[in-house]
Write a structure and sequence with these properties.
By secondary structure, this protein is mainly beta. The chain has one domain (8-137): Trefoil (Acidic Fibroblast Growth Factor, subunit A), CATH 2.80.10. It is built from no helices and twelve strands. The protein has strands spanning 8-12, 18-20, 32-34, 47-50, 53-56, 62-65, 74-79, 91-94, 97-100, 106-109, 119-122, 133-137. A four-stranded antiparallel sheet has the order 6-7-11-10, with no helix packed on it. Strand 8 and strand 9 form a beta hairpin. The protein is globular. The model has no long low-confidence stretch (mean pLDDT 96). This is Carbohydrate-binding module family 13 protein. Residues 5-136 form the Ricin B lectin domain. InterPro entries: Ricin_B-like_lectins, Ricin_B_lectin.
Length: 142
């Protein structure tokens, strides 16, 4: 379950890299994984959870599946929050898998390298360590 308040890092269980807006502030920019940054970079990597949405601390944009299609191999972006037809923007977490609530078969996935894009793919039953994430609470001031 996502926390009901406060900020957190969404961290890959395999690599320890975190979900990052890559310094981009525009809607439609892709999300990547990067090493956890210092104080000057941390806002790019902080998220909060509200009513099913994962919201960037820096931009107030939400995690979104590109094009609104709930299909495997789609890029994950930050985008303006939709009030309706938000099936590609509402998320859950269970057993380390972050998934769109509308289709729990799809999960966040990435590669091992820093700067790798984040996508949604079908959950694998084996070799799924790059699909598993954990929440690390942010301990600083905000």
């Amino acid at each position: 379950m996502f926390p009901s308040e406060g900020y957190f890092f969404l961290k890959s269980q395999k690599t320890g890299l975190v979900l990052d807006i890559n310094g981009e502030t525009e809607a439609g920019s892709r999300l990547v994984i990067r090493p956890k940054g210092d104080e000057s970079e941390v806002e790019n990597q902080l998220w909060t959870f509200e009513q099913g949405y994962l919201i960037s601390k820096k931009t107030s944009l939400v995690v979104d599946i590109e094009g609104g299609d709930l299909r495997s191999d789609k890029r994950v972006l930050q985008f303006d929050r939709k009030k309706t037809m938000a099936h590609n923007q509402r998320w859950g977490i269970r057993d380390g898998f972050v998934y769109p609530v509308a289709d729990p078969r799809l999960v966040l996935d990435t590669k091992e390298d820093s700067g790798s894009p984040v996508t949604v793919t079908y959950r694998r039953t084996e070799d799924n360590d790059l699909q598993q994430w954990y929440l690390e609470p942010f301990e600083g001031d905000y």
